[in-house]
Amino acid sequence: MNHCWCLFYILVPCFSNFTAPMGTVLSPDYPEGYGNNLNCVWLIISEPGSRIHLAFNDFDLEPPYDFLTVRDGDQSEATMLGRFSGAEVPSHLTSNSNILQLEFQADHSMSGRGFNITYSSEQTISYLKIYLY
Ligand SMILES: *[C@@H]1O[C@H](CO)[C@@H](O)[C@H](O)[C@H]1NC(C)=O
Ligand SMILES: [Ca+2]
């Protein structure tokens, strides 16, 4: 018998929600390499009326097949704030709403180091202060 099952790409799901006011989102097994066939969705949920700030401490994904998509809100069609791949560390970004969605996809081969992203949430007032500063 010919074992063709190996040709099917089985996506390993990984989901989690972050509700603490600040925290760190790491790719699976960071910094050892994240592996293959991933479709991860992380939601960062802050207080209504606040915004979430992302700072990329480290970033290394196999371009262009592995990438991270950041969306403003929890819907799959929510506005995309950025899509990142490769080894260039993205500049920081801030949500417009109180929910940020990070979706990480990796294909069937090759892995980079992964990513280390810290987030913090700010009430809109203090966000404006920081923004104007
Ligand atoms: C993620 O980056 C932060 C800031 O550079 C660092 O303090 C922390 O140790 C890193 N986490 C890991 C698991 O490397
Ligand atoms: Ca890959």
TrEMBL record:
Keywords, in A-Z order: Disulfide bond, Repeat, Signal
InterPro entries cross-referenced by the UniProt entry: CUB_dom, Sperma_CUB_dom_sf
SMART domains in the cross-refs: CUB (SM00042)
One Pfam family linked to the record: CUB
Domain of life assignment: Eukaryota
Residues of the signal peptide: 1-21
Keyword Disulfide bond attached: yes
Location of the CUB domain: 14-122
Organism lineage: Eukaryota, Metazoa, Chordata, Craniata, Vertebrata
UniProt organism field: Cyprinodon variegatus (Sheepshead minnow)
Record flagged with keyword Repeat: yes
Protein known as: CUB domain-containing protein
